[in-house]
Every structure is written in structure tokens, then in C-alpha cells.
Amino acid sequence: METFNNILVVSRSTKNCVKVLRTGVALARKFGAQLHVLHIIHDPFNVNGWNLPVPSLDEEYKAMIAKAREKLDRIIRIEKAEGMLINEWVKDGDPVKAISQAVEKEGVDLILMLAHREGRLEHFLFGKTNDAIIRRLPASLMLVR
């Protein structure tokens, strides 16, 4: 495996992103790499062409994000307290643009993203943008299940 200097963890603040973050932490330790965590805030129910969501689905999505953010924030806080340098930021809007900008600005050579399986809420919400991101990436990509 090649050496990685800048690792980007893409977080959409879902419970499955916790595993992606833990993988990023482990790889940053292994390679002595700088870890970047990009939290993307993107309302998938406000996308052109969508009808208004079923209210319970919108509520479920917001609750899922709040719970996941607590876990993600706790992991990052612990790692920083133990001395790991983590560059963390939040972007709102188009995920493809946000990830592309982060990769270019930080010189990212490895991107970690959640692999979405059929049937998961995340796949329904993010599958289309993941395909667009994968086609445009100028860095290595690891999909974490």
C-alpha cells in the first residue's frame, strides 16, 4: 500500500459514518498522516425534483443526524485530547463541490466515504451524489461499509 499524507473523512453525520471516522483515525495513525474531517450538511429533501417528504421520514432523518453527530464529536474530541491533529470543518450545500474543494485545498490523497447498500436510508438519500463524487475525484478512494 502506498503512503498517504492527507486523509479526508467525508461525514454526512449518519450512524454509519462513525465507522468511516474510526477507519480514518486508524489510517492516519498508521501512516502518520494529517486527518481532515469534512461534515457535509445537505438537506436531501430540498433537492430539485423531489416532492415534499413524508413528515415522519424528515423527522427520522433529523434525529439520525443529531444522534450520529454526538458520537462523531465525541470520537474527534477524544482523539484531539490524545494529541491527534484533526482539521475539521463543516460545509453546507452541494456535496460534490464541497469534497472537490477540500481535496484540492488540503492536498488530499485518500478519501474515505461510506459505502451505501441498497435498502439503507443513506443510499436512498445520498447514492446519486456519491456516484457524481466518485467520477470527479483526483485522489484515491476507500469506501467503508
Describe the structure.
It contains four helices and five strands. By secondary structure, it is an alpha/beta fold. It has a five-stranded parallel β-sheet, with helices on both faces. Helix 1 runs parallel beside helix 2 (55-81) and helix 3 (95-106) packs across helix 4 (121-136). The longest helix is centred in the middle third of the chain and has 27 residues, at 55-81. The protein is globular and about 45 Å long. The two termini are 20 Å apart.
How large is the share of residues in beta strands? 15-25%
The averaged pLDDT comes out at 80
Radius of gyration, taken over Cα atoms and rounded to an integer in Å = 15 Å
Strand order, sheet with most strands: 3-2-1-4-5
Low-confidence segments: 48-52
- Mass-distribution shape: globular
What is the helix fraction of residues, given as a range? 40-55%
Gap between N and C termini, in Å?
20 Å
How many helices does DSSP assign?
Answer: 4
SS content category: alpha/beta
What kind of sheet is the major sheet?
A: 5 strands, parallel
β-strand number: 5
Topology, pairings included?
Blueprint: E1 6-11, H1 17-31, E2 34-41, H2 55-81, E3 86-92, H3 95-106, E4 110-114, H4 121-136, E5 140-144
Parallel strand pairs: 1-2, 1-4, 2-3, 4-5
Helix pairs in contact: 1-2, 3-4
